Amino acid sequence: MSRFPPPEDFERVNLPHGIAWFRPAAKKPVLTFWKRSGGGLPLSKVAARHPDSRRFPGRGAVVSAPFPGVGTLIIRPCVHGGWWGRLARDLYLGSGRVRREILRSERLLRLRIPTPKIQAAFFYPASPFCRMEVATSLVTGGRDLNDLLSTRPLAGQRTRIMAAVRKLLDQLHRQGVRHPDLNARNILLSPTGSGNWSAWLLDVDAVRWGEPGDPTVDTANRHRLLRSLLKLARLGDLGWSEQEVPRLWRELFPDS
């Protein structure tokens, strides 16, 4: 695994069981926690043993735990989606998937588009492949749009939630950012005080850049989100029926 040079602003560390890329501030806290808690296991399994750990829905075992010195981190495995995911599952040939996510995340942050900051990445050999995990800073109080809507918040609260989502989509439009998998679970909402919310973009390895202000980018993002809401409603996960989704959509885009 000598072919895994880290991106800018990250340090490479050779581990007994693989390789890690760390931001300098996260390196010592994570390694100290890891060594004290069972350094021979993937970090996600070590984090899951912490009494204050939490599990989150996702393609793999997503878990959070507090790491003294760097705060609470979410450790998420990289797992292929779609038909390819049924074959390859969590096996990757090289570090390209994680490198793309880091570079695109950094670019989004420079553009002031909220996305959780990546603090570290981990590569575990499974010759000739590897398994990978990404550690990001926890967004305090964060809940994805699907989870939040499933509680059927009252109209006034929904107005503030939809305003935050609308602001995020406006930012993507202005910067020409297209997210091919912009579903309701890839938009995270966090409270900002006084009942307001901030929206964050997740799973950013898939984002693409077009022309800033290009209306086709905005249309593509909206269509992808609408398909997601309809699918989640059909599956019974949204807490709203398919017949109610147009009502939610009008609340999200009242001027369209």
Sheet with most strands: 7 strands, antiparallel
In percent, how much strand structure appears in the residues?
15-25%
In round numbers, the mean pLDDT is 91
Strand pairing plus helix content: what structural class?
alpha+beta
Shape field: globular
What does this structure look like?
It is a single chain. With 256 residues, the chain is of the alpha+beta class. It folds into two domains: 11-137; 143-252, Orthogonal Bundle (Transferase(Phosphotransferase), domain 1), CATH 1.10.510.10. It contains eight helices and twelve strands. It has helices at 24-37, 43-48, 82-88, 96-110, 145-150, 155-175, 215-235, 245-252; strands spanning 11-15, 18-22, 54-56, 62-67, 71-77, 118-126, 129-137, 143-144, 177-178, 187-193, 196-201, 208-209. A seven-stranded antiparallel beta sheet has the order 1-2-6-7-5-4-3, with helices on both faces. It has a three-stranded antiparallel beta sheet with strand order 8-10-11. A two-stranded antiparallel ribbon has the order 9-12. Helix 6 (155-175) runs antiparallel to helix 7. The relative contact order is 0.11.
Summarize the structure.
This protein has 256 residues and is of the alpha+beta class. It has two domains: 11-137; 143-252, Transferase(Phosphotransferase) domain 1 (Transferase(Phosphotransferase), domain 1), CATH 1.10.510. It is built from eight helices and twelve strands.
What labels describe this entry?
256 residues; alpha+beta; Transferase(Phosphotransferase), domain 1; 2 domains; 3-stranded antiparallel β-sheet; 8 helices; 38% helix; 25% strand; globular
